[in-house]
Structures
1.
Amino acid sequence: MSTLLLLNGPNLNLLGTREPGVYGATTLADVEAQALATAQRLGFGLEAFQSNHEGALIDKIHEAGRRHKAGELAGVVFNPGAFTHTSVALFDAIGGVKPLPVIEIHISNVHAREAFRHHSYISPAAAGIVIGFGTEGYTLAIEGLVRKIKAAHPA
Ligand code: DQA
């Protein structure tokens, strides 16, 4: 049970060049490398997956649920991008694989942005939320996820 999954949704493949004033200059490859280093520092492995397609993200969450049941995957850090604000299907997917812990993360402070970003369909299903720390938030999300995993499975 020592692997984590980092899941990134639509347009996050453009990190580094996409609205750098909002999302910074760090690329997705940098984020994934940093996330792997953080996971390894905490004694976990990490797999990363990005998709611009809602169904592919749903399939990945279902697969993560099956692997969690099999004892192969400990938890997920998920930036659902704009699907955060639209996707009942992703909310249902996360609800359908409980108790797999999923941490929701947003690079920007969505509450300081347009009103349509203020509501998240994902948050009620999330085990925790990290918002507005830039790409450093992925490190915080992994650290928080590992705390929750260790609290649920004391050594
Ligand atoms: C985002 C915030 C969303 O509102 C936006 O659609 C994104 C990125 C963030 O990480 O700040 O694509 O999830």
2.
Amino acid sequence: MISHPVSGRLPVPRRAATYHSAMTRVFSGVQPTGALHLGNYLGAFRQWVAGQRESDCYFCVVDLHSLTVEHEPGELAALTLDTAACFLAAGLEPDLVTLFVQSHVHEHAEMAWLLECNVSFGELSRMTQFKEKAAGRGAVKAGLFTYPALMAADILLYDTDRVPVGDDQRQHLELTRDVAMRFNNRYGETFVVPEAAVPEAAARVMDLQAPTQKMSKSEGSPLGRIDLLDGPEEVTQKIRRAVTDTDGEVSYDPDRKPGVSNLLEIMSAVTGEPVAEVASRYQQYGSLKADLAEALVEMLQPVRKRYELYSSDPGEMANLLEQGADKAAAVASKTLARAKEAMGLLGRTA
Ligand code: AQP
């Protein structure tokens, strides 16, 4: 075997990668782009919370991603802290998981560049999220186009086995897997190839006013979105005013009846019952909406309570994020060094 020409070390071996303990490593993130909503909760947070005891979890406020569209500089820092408080409000335990801010760990940006050099223009051009977000914008930032490379960097830096995300992130996850496998084939086994974990029900919660579009922090009207911190009256009002249709029949048919199907799917995710069973219990929209509002109010009540606790002390939140960044950087720096060496970059001697 030929040794590395400069370091004298052996080239990175081609073998199945296991770079951490036997526990499954989990990574996921959320952008600080606005108030978190029911889609974020059912698509991502609930899975994060469910797996936090048996997995080694890294959860990140991905603030660098939020720069890919217009943002308000004066609000970003506070929104970042608030998003982290919402992670805990949703049920994450600070002693069990590593919680940090993406821009605090500089390896993310550096790894993103290495991966941009391993992904093609054609692949990035096919990303539907890019097409949707770029549509109708005057000036599209280059960062919006290369966003998936940064997301791949986020995931691969932590030797991640599982990435719990909503359905809208499936395509980015596929690209991450492709890039990891391509890199491993070209430069030697370097990255763990991650799996997406998408929930069965409510993987794509739709906007309550425009049910053919996904519920989103930055798009759609406030009435179309249930925020994580909405109180009982707001939740009830938004569900009551949710768009359905005029035929009055409760049945699950996302193509023909997107509004009522969205409500049924949310109910199924909240109660754990199969969607067909939920649908069979109702004859009228009114009673479905009333029960759904009640179930959501009950589900979100503890979230609001925990939010009060964690948002009341931003100093403590900032300390927690500092500790998280140290722990994350210790893992990320090793993976980055491995990738740089594999690509043949000259290492420093000191
Ligand atoms: N509507 C949704 N249904 C299910 N899951 C969803 N997620 C987002 N919207 C829904 C999941 O939430 C996580 C965090 O998403 P993000 O902050 O990275 O951004 P996003 O996917 O682009 O979500 P938003 O809310 O629509 O943000 P903006 O408006 O800023 O683009 C991800 O796991 C996502 O799948």
